[in-house]
Design brief:
The chain is of the alpha/beta class and about 230 residues long. It contains eight helices and five strands; from the N terminus they run E-H-E-H-E-H-H-E-E-H-H-H-H. Helix 2 runs parallel beside helix 4 and helix 6 runs parallel beside helix 7. The longest helix is centred in the last third of the chain and has 56 residues. It is elongated, with a radius of gyration of 34 Å. About 20% of the residues are buried.
Amino acid sequence: MNVTENKAVFLSYASQDAEAARRICEALRAAGVEVWLDQEGGLVGGDAWDRKIRGQIASCALFLPVISAATQARLEGYFRLEWKLAAQRTHTMADAKPFLLPVVIDATRDADAHVPEEFRAVQWTRLRKGYGGQAPDEATGPFCARVKTLLAPADSAVGARLTRAQEDGRGRATPLQDRPAKVGRALRVWQAWGIGAVVAVVLVGIFGWSRWREKSEGVATAQAAARRSARP
């Protein structure tokens, strides 16, 4: 399955968690999310496999590392390279862009997990019952909904229209997204009026003070002249 940039999810896991990863993949796909899973990727060994993995991580929309007792026990493994590559990719992203979405499938504690520091900066999801055991996990539905929400900006028609509008400069934003711009313009207008009013008051004050000074100097000059003429 090929990954479409900005739409697909990359599922990374230790080989011991392959069954749990498959269940997560099935739940996401049932919710309409595109998922890449190396169990069915048709990958060959060696350098070609490594290149394809790196390419998928470099182009996926979300990276989901599956964290468990198995990953805790394995201090070496290819999944750890995947995790480091994903963590490194976040260094070129804006802080507001969602990308890492760690998933814990057992009782592994966040604080004890052997993961890149970048993983700790985001919210983790716990899926235990349906993956560490047999009972369905009540958190699966909200989890899939969250993934779809994180992917929505790239897939939504509104987002596409806004992107086209920004590119050609002819379109208009939706009312909710246009509102901050309108408020900003209104504030700028009021600021301009306020600054203009202050400048006007200052200029009037300066002009009035100049006129008063000229008048005072004229009166003083006239009085001095009158005193001189009155001298014997």
